[in-house]
Design brief:
single chain, eight-stranded mixed beta sheet, two-stranded antiparallel sheet, 11 helices, 10 strands, 44% helix
């Protein structure tokens, strides 16, 4: 009789190749002293040789919540681990997370940081800097790669790219939300039994700046605006969002006198965390200007669109 499966790792996959192959390999090479399985959920059958520890679940509906819920319905593990196909798990990813959850049975969800991989391009490192800089970046613990272990107070501080959920606590992702926000909704529903652990680490590929990165951020922030309009608690009660909108409005009104201080301030803060070589630091203030403009406009447009709908 085979050993009971401790963890079911769930990875949505569009196609095999490049980052997806590295993501799969990083899971299969985990240094874990227990049995685990990898479930690849895709719209069509994957053309690859699957080992005994890997299964391919087919879900034609591309709604990310639907796809992950379908994979969970096939999972055998008592712990569900979620990772994306453009991320690579640290060698001790599973062992560290399971060790913590076993020692803390009251914790329902565990997440951790998702820094960019070491082979990131210049454009990807600019994107990482925009997300990782405290005060003016994403404001999220996972993107800022914060050290330590602590209770999560904002549901967006951890994300689906690096998320562990006890099967007994899993209530399913809200399929009505669609793309972006389904993880935040689940995490919020299980707080305060949610913890961030910096030792539970994956390396997540960033969208290159400017085009792909700004388009992704636009989609995310439009969804933020829509969720605000819907009155979704994780968004409506998020003080960071309201503070950003307030400061952004003041900055726009005071732009003639605020521009130079803004450029200096963003350069000083971002230079402390960036992995870019010094010769490239000059682009950071202007990258932040584009980043903040897209964030502000996206939230406002999302709120307007939410009202129209």
């Amino acid at each position: 009789m085979s050993a009971a499966v401790k963890v079911s790792v769930i990875m949505p996959v569009e196609r095999i190749g490049g980052d997806a192959e590295r993501a799969i390999e990083s899971v299969l090479r985990q240094e874990a002293p227990f049995a685990f399985e990898l479930i690849l959920v895709s719209a069509t059958q994957l053309t690859m040789q699957l080992g005994n520890a890997v299964r391919n679940v087919i879900e034609p509906d591309r709604n990310p919540a639907t796809r992950r819920n379908r994979a969970v319905s096939e999972a055998r593990g008592e712990i569900l681990a979620f990772i994306d196909d453009d991320a690579m798990a640290d060698a001790g990813w599973l062992a560290t997370a399971v060790g913590y959850l076993d020692a803390h049975p009251d914790i329902a969800i565990l997440g951790g940081p998702d820094p960019a991989p070491a082979d990131s391009t210049r454009a990807e490192l600019i994107a990482e800097t925009l997300l990782a800089t405290p005060l003016i970046g994403s404001g999220l613990a996972c993107h800022e790669n914060r050290p330590g272990t602590f209770p999560v107070t904002s549901a967006s501080d951890i994300a689906l790219v690096n998320l562990f959920v006890r099967r007994s606590a899993f209530r399913g992702f809200d399929e009505s939300i669609g793309y972006i926000g389904e993880d935040t909704s689940l995490i919020a529903s299980l707080m305060p039994a949610v913890v961030y652990h910096s030792g539970v680490r994956v390396f997540h590929r960033r969208r290159p700046f400017p085009g792909p990165y700004l388009r992704q951020r636009w989609r995310y922030r439009v969804k933020t605006g829509e969720m605000l309009r819907r009155g979704s608690a994780p968004y409506a009660k998020n003080r960071k969002i309201w503070a950003f909108l307030f400061v952004g409005t003041i900055a726009i009104l005071a732009s003639p006198i605020a521009l130079v201080p803004y450029l200096v301030f963003t350069l000083i803060l971002s230079a402390r965390v960036t992995r870019l070589p010094k010769r490239d630091w000059i682009v950071l203030p202007f990258a932040f200007a584009a980043h903040h403009a897209v964030y502000f406009a996206g939230i406002v447009w999302g709120a307007i669109r939410g009202r129209v709908r």
